[in-house]
Design goal:
Blueprint: H1 5-18, H2 24-41, H3 47-59
Length: 76
């Protein structure tokens, strides 16, 4: 079962907060290298692909009201 992105992001933030400050630069390098590695294996979608995916979502009704766009942004 896949966890919602928000839950994973919250868990990542919690792990970062628990990492001693002196190791955070190393953690940043590790995350950066990880992102570059997966991007090389599976490149980010182009603007055209992203638009098509968004259009499919909109047509299928998988959208949220813009009024909720910033809900929870101050949580932390």
């Amino acid at each position: 079962m896949t966890q919602p992105t928000e839950d994973i992001t919250e868990r990542l933030h919690a792990e970062i907060e628990q990492t001693p400050a002196r190791y955070r630069a190393l953690l940043l390098r590790l995350v950066h290298s990880f992102r570059e590695g997966i991007e090389a294996d599976e490149p980010w979608p182009s603007a055209t692909e992203s638009f098509r995916e968004g259009w499919r979502d909109a047509k299928a009704g998988r959208v949220q009201s813009i009024d909720t766009l910033w809900d929870g942004i101050d949580a932390g």
